[in-house]
Amino acid sequence: MKSLHPLTWWIWSLLIVGAVIATNSAWVAGFAIAVAAISVLKFAEDAPWAKSFWFSLRLGAIILVIRTVVGVLIGVPIPGTKLFSVPILPLPSWIAGIRIGGVVTQERLLSSIHEGLIIIAVICLFGAAVSLTSPHKLLRVTPVVIYEFGVATVIATSALPQLVQSVGRIRRARTLRGDENPSWRSIAIPLLEDSLSRSLELAAAMDSRGYGVSRKRSRYRPIHWQQIDSAVVASALVALALALVLR
After folding, report:
1. Same domain flag for 210 and 241
2. For the chain, how many structural domains are there in total?
């Protein structure tokens, strides 16, 4: 299959995020996460940035747990079906209405999970956009007016996938040396050295190519918008329109 335009998945993700926020539904958020996962499995290239979605999914799961715990233990009491009770921690009178602990109701628990799923969906959709888009191709379609900002953005978005790849490589190296359960301390120093080395190599490469010397933009093999790009964006527009109509 032909590769899509670099902006296609970003536009698609923004429109789906709009649909998730407009509906404010946990079911829609879960469906969006599933669609993003299927899209990454089907269209992602074998590249370091392709793992960004799965990292964002794990990060979202951690956020869901934290949001649920915080929502259950701290917040405004919500009446409903009692599940269990947590000891109440006394708070000053000037923050009346908020408490730590107390009766945990089914409605309070579901509300925390619902908000966590919305957050996960937003994170995963942007993670899918990063996984499905080559940062180098994205830079090629960046207008010259914001080219320097685009370079900084591409470097920033490439940092996380490269960091994940470096951690995996260091873990495999430690395993081959007999350390089957390496600690973060044994990974942190090699990871820092690898990051610094990569930064120096990037700076040398940019300097050798004359970055910043000329404001003229060269275009080698321009990337054209295709019919499949229009189809992907149209599907997201339909989803957003349905969300606005049915909310």
Report:
1. no
2. 2
